[in-house]
Amino acid sequence: MGHAVIERSDEDGSILPLLLGYIVLAIAVVFVCTCATDLYVHQKRLDSLADAAALAGADGFTLVVEEDAVRAELTDSGVREQAVAIVDAVSSGAWVVAASAPDGVTARVTLAVDWHPPLFSAFVPDGVALESTATSRTALR
């Protein structure tokens, strides 16, 4: 009875390096996806806060009486005061970059916040400055 001889070719070897490479790639993808999702959520929160600050700023009007008419007028200082009050009440780390009433009836508020990734990763930057601008018009004209 003969014995079969098994020859090893040069292509035989361990799949361990390939498996480790795939694991590293999978971990990097999970890190990047987690950080991208967190960045998206932070931007949406900042957008919502900017909307709230602009809405509050539109309520910071003063009444102006001209002859027989009374109208609401927004001022830059009134919009800023209301926007800062909303941002401070939320205490999200955001700050008011600009708050103005360009036409006297529209409140425009720009907020900013520094975002830092929730996970350490060499594939994601240390931090990103996020900014959001919202406008709102006063209901009283």
Description:
The protein has 141 residues and is an alpha+beta fold. The chain has one domain (16-137). 41% of the residues lie in helices and 27% in strands. The radius of gyration is 29 Å and the shape is rod-shaped. The model has no long low-confidence stretch (mean pLDDT 84).
For this entry, give a set of tags.
3-stranded antiparallel β-sheet; 141 residues; rod-shaped; alpha+beta
Short description:
The chain has helices at 16-58, 76-90; strands at 61-66, 69-74, 95-100, 106-115, 128-137. With 141 residues, the chain is an alpha+beta fold.
Number of strands: 5
Strand content: 25-35%
Number of domains: 1
Give the overall shape.
rod-shaped
Order of strands, widest sheet: 3-4-5
Helix/strand order, N-terminal first:
HEEHEEE
Poorly predicted runs: none
- Helix segment tally: 2
Q: Which range best describes the helical content: under 10%, 10-25%, 25-40%, 40-55%, 55-70% or over 70%?
A: 40-55%
Head-to-tail CA distance between termini:
105 Å
- Mind summarizing the main beta sheet? 3 strands, antiparallel
Please state the CA-atom Rg, rounded to the nearest Å: 29 Å
Mean pLDDT: 84
> Structural class, please?
alpha+beta
Set down the secondary structure blueprint.
Blueprint: H1 16-58, E1 61-66, E2 69-74, H2 76-90, E3 95-100, E4 106-115, E5 128-137
Antiparallel strand pairs: 1-2, 3-4, 4-5
Helix pairs in contact: 1-2
